[in-house]
Amino acid sequence: MEGLDARLAKKRKSKKESNQNGSSQLQSSSSANWFTSTKSAKKVPLNAVTSIMDGLKKLYVQKLKPLEVTYQFNDFVSPLLGNSDFDAKPMVMLLGQYSTGKTTFIKHLLGSSYPGAHIGPEPTTDRFVVVMNGPDERSVPGNTIAVQADMPFSGLTTFGTAFLSKFECSQMPHPLLEHITLVDTPGVLSGEKQRTERSYDFIGVTSWFATKCDLILLLFDPYKLDISDEFKRVISSLRGHDDKIRVVLNKADQVDTQQLMRVYGALMWSLGKVLNTPEVMRVYIGSFNDKPMNAAAGPMGQELFEKEQDDLLTDLKNIPKRACDRRINEFVKRTRAAKIHACIISHLKKEMPVMMGKAKVQQRLIDNLDDEFTKVQREHHLPAGDFPNVEHFREVLNVYNIDKFEKLRPKMIQSVDDMLGQDIPKLLKNFRNPYD
């Protein structure tokens, strides 16, 4: 993170020098001082990080992967994990409608454009771009990056060549990218264009990245507060990742203070219709670009934007510190999902007749999948909130012969329970978080 520290320190210094016209100087916030401290930029040896990761890899291969393979978890929920999925750097994904400043936000963070970046008022970014550290500046096509064993993107091959042709990796040497990877996404379109003119499953890809990412930024601007049905579906696909979502009201210097107050209220009202959570979503207000602050914001707005930017950058800077904990958190979530999936598959298998009328019973099970989920929940005393989406599960189940599924193997379930109750706590006890 040293590059981010230096850039912020330089920015603070230039702002202080430019403010010599007799007006009241804005005091730099405590978070800005924290950014320039040497303690916050300590490097962590890679062998310390991988000690926890190696333990998770071993547990996955020995106990969880056999369960996933037996009950075809990779076809229904998520592809099997490889070494690169455990060793990958933390990722930050930017989502929003077109021209809300996603690519400009990345340029603002890095201090320069990444290879292949296009910025404009029209929908310019037409592909998913992963911006990561590399020895030189270059763009790698999606088909190439998806088959590299040291990259965590092999799971994207399930979305086909149509998506991989709209996916690329931009590599460039940068201190910030040594710690995190940034994911730039196409702007969410409105109307039928989003659903019919995309040649791949946009929501499916977004959901895949949401599982891998450590932070998801939803970008809005004062003139694009309306959440279209397509954007609503994208946000709904982030279900289960609410703790990763942050909202950014970008380009806030384009309106004055009174209008900004009304815009903020309208944004919170719109989000309340989409995000079905009782908690208030964290919203960062600012203008995240390299242009001078618009005079309409006034001195009060400028001070607010600087504090908000400091808070957001602090959030970004804490990502590597939380990476180990989040990796374990995602692993536990995956383990519970795999256990529930195994219980569902084995229950459907048990309901099938031995000889006659198999096709008729299968269709009845698929049609009444909600009731079958309830039966599984009661039988195994599982929480209802951990069950998969019924419609998606039904859609995948339609192409399978339930009679070919495996029966429940209690030893596998017990092994996974032992991993959650004993092995993972022991791993956490032996290896502390190296960023503490």
TrEMBL record:
<dbReference type="GO" id="GO:0006897">
    <property type="term" value="P:endocytosis"/>
</dbReference>
<protein>
    <submittedName>
        <fullName>EH domain-containing protein 1</fullName>
    </submittedName>
</protein>
<dbReference type="InterPro" id="IPR031692">
    <property type="entry name" value="EHD_N"/>
</dbReference>
<keyword id="KW-0547">Nucleotide-binding</keyword>
<dbReference type="InterPro" id="IPR027417">
    <property type="entry name" value="P-loop_NTPase"/>
</dbReference>
<dbReference type="GO" id="GO:0010008">
    <property type="term" value="C:endosome membrane"/>
</dbReference>
<feature type="region of interest" description="Disordered">
    <location>
        <begin position="1"/>
        <end position="31"/>
    </location>
</feature>
<keyword id="KW-0472">Membrane</keyword>
<dbReference type="InterPro" id="IPR030381">
    <property type="entry name" value="G_DYNAMIN_dom"/>
</dbReference>
<dbReference type="GO" id="GO:0051260">
    <property type="term" value="P:protein homooligomerization"/>
</dbReference>
<dbReference type="Pfam" id="PF16880">
    <property type="entry name" value="EHD_N"/>
</dbReference>
<keyword id="KW-0106">Calcium</keyword>
<keyword id="KW-1003">Cell membrane</keyword>
<keyword id="KW-0967">Endosome</keyword>
<dbReference type="Pfam" id="PF00350">
    <property type="entry name" value="Dynamin_N"/>
</dbReference>
<dbReference type="GO" id="GO:0046872">
    <property type="term" value="F:metal ion binding"/>
</dbReference>
<feature type="domain" description="Dynamin-type G">
    <location>
        <begin position="86"/>
        <end position="320"/>
    </location>
</feature>
<dbReference type="GO" id="GO:0000166">
    <property type="term" value="F:nucleotide binding"/>
</dbReference>
<keyword id="KW-0479">Metal-binding</keyword>
<dbReference type="GO" id="GO:0005886">
    <property type="term" value="C:plasma membrane"/>
</dbReference>
<dbReference type="Pfam" id="PF18150">
    <property type="entry name" value="DUF5600"/>
</dbReference>
<dbReference type="InterPro" id="IPR045063">
    <property type="entry name" value="Dynamin_N"/>
</dbReference>
<feature type="compositionally biased region" description="Low complexity">
    <location>
        <begin position="19"/>
        <end position="31"/>
    </location>
</feature>
<dbReference type="InterPro" id="IPR040990">
    <property type="entry name" value="DUF5600"/>
</dbReference>
